[in-house]
Design a protein that fits this description.
Elements lengths: L7 E4 L2 E4 L3 H14 L3 E4 L3 H7 L3 H8 L3 E2 L4 H9 L10 H9 L6 E7 L4 H10 L5 E7 L12 H9 L4 E5 L2 H11 L7 E4 L1 H7 L8 H5 L3 H8 L4 H36 L4 E5 L5 E9 L5 H11 L5 E11 L1 H16 L4 E4 L3 H9 L8
Parallel strand pairs: 3-4, 3-8, 5-6, 5-7, 7-8, 10-11, 11-12
Antiparallel strand pairs: 1-2, 9-10
Helix pairs in contact: 2-3, 3-8, 6-9, 13-14
Length: 364
Amino acid sequence: MDDFDREVYCIGGLPFDAVDLSKTMNRLRDAKYKKTTCFLTTPNLNFLALSQCDADFRSSVLHSDIVIADGAPIVWIAKLLGIPIQERVAGSTLFEALGKEWRRKMKVYFFGGPSGVAAEASAHINEKSTGLACVGYYSPGFGTIDDMSEKTIIEKINLSDADFLVVALGAKKGQAWIVNNLDKIKVPLVSHLGAVINFEAKRLKRAPIRLQKIGLEWAWRIKEEPHLWRRYWNDGWFLLRFLMANILPVIVWNCFNKQRVKRLSQKSTVVLDDSGFDANLIISGVVLDPVSPETRSILRDASLQNKSVQLNLAEAEYLSSGMLGLLLLLKKQLDKQGKQLKIIGVQPSMRKLLGWNCLNYLVE
């Protein structure tokens, strides 16, 4: 499966995969057994907030291989927008589920965490008979990304023969470290799961299931780590602003234009012209979800031209969350090649749509 087969949707300028816990675990197993790199990112509301003002952080999510909704507010937003993300897949829940797969042992390496915590987490995991085995750990302290990326450190991780590298350096630094070293790391699965090490070391207790299910795990986290109250306070205000400025306008627009959009979707076209210096991608009319296999194939072809792509939206009326998500994946593929996604012909209505989806950075 390549990027353009992913069932991905744009929320707040980030691509989210519409997967549940079972599908996520299948994706991780595939990467493990095929020895292919899988960069898993688990954005919560804080990720969404940080990505609005930090282009590098946002890019780290775009460049991931699978992006799951690790926050109840993300799932709530998806439901408001009609996006088929049905459940929260928390990184901690995913890690616990892997531990229950006794017949499919997953070898884990912990990188990061406060001094001594990774060692405690390793000991607790290895003293139990579960689907997890810790094959190594390293706590790099508080150095720079470059300090933490020395050749000897990467070699130590690679020599561990781990299946899953769990990073815990804080969201921004952890994502940056992964992006900086992903091409050198030989471990199939890589993800920043900051709280997992503390949970496995028994330094913190995870919220009861009933609180997780109703979206109040954040309240329990504040009880366990009082210093987090400020982050959750800021995230709460961000959510309120985001709902009012970005989500509500989309809902209102969809209510008033539902029939018109459906009618125009019959006349939509997506065309690729690769004869010029840049590949020209022209979208006209309306693209609705689910995005057709034909459109996905055209986007895949655009990514394979080894050219920058000029996306012409002069005749585009509306692009669905799924189509916007796929355009983010096109940008990811072009970024890898050192090419650009250039958007031209953006009409005022389309500029509003891109703004509501936090995609203004694509046309600036």
